[in-house]
Amino acid sequence: MRSAGAGFDGGGFERSVGNVNAINGGAMEAGFSQSDVAYWAQTGTGWWEGQPAVEKLRLIANLYPESIHLVARKDAGVASVADLKGKRVSLDEPGSGTLVDAKIILEAYDLSEKDITPEYLKPDQAADRMRDGAMDAFFFVGGYPAGAIAELASQHDVTLVPIAGPEADKLRETYSFFAADTVPAGTYEGQDADASTLSVGAQLVTSADQPEELIYGITKALYNENTQKLFAAGHAKGKQITLDNATLGAGIPFHPGAERFYKEAGKLE
């Protein structure tokens, strides 16, 4: 079976797009994608607007969360998303998935790019600007602890701004690829409390054209005892590849083979 992205780097945005296109074109049977990319591709919306929808894209498993970090200078007076009004905020570079997610989040809190001084920088560039006092906050999507943020937090007083409350609950209802998430206290230097946020999932996706028995077997193998032990003993993200996380923030329809396994395991009704 040809698949891509067997490492634990979550695939990232560009690789997600490449994998989805390869699955759609039949060059790959399965691959990794972020849940937001998979959702936009399957529905032909968001970042994928104007391109043909990949209607046959199906989910095998949600593997682990890629947490949405909203990082602010501690002295910037940003305690919530709404406090970003009038601030200098980096939304990530043009064409990135983070930029689309950031705009959706701003909108949920009645803000737009007109209400902030937006910049469009990669997270490491935004962190450099923050060190120089020229940036109040920036968005980053990735598993924690994120190297660029850990480095920044060790040198400067920063805070993780919660993405929570009724606005975040409504976002999860509207965009099924978002899941509730928590960055635990102590993940970054100076972080005294848990930070509630949203996440997009690192997902294993396939095509509806793949046989049910094949995908059922793959899903079952992912969650057998031996595989689970291997995941838990490996990378930190491996510990999060659990049956409990498998069906969270799905976004797109499950492949019938995966769906059958989760129903048997009592994870789907």
Automatic annotation (TrEMBL):
InterPro entries: TRAP_TAXI. It comes from the Bacteria. Pfam families: NMT1_3. Gene3D superfamilies: Periplasmic binding protein-like II. NCBIfam families: TRAP_TAXI. This is TRAP transporter solute receptor, TAXI family. The lineage of its organism: Bacteria, Pseudomonadati, Pseudomonadota, Alphaproteobacteria, Rhodobacterales.
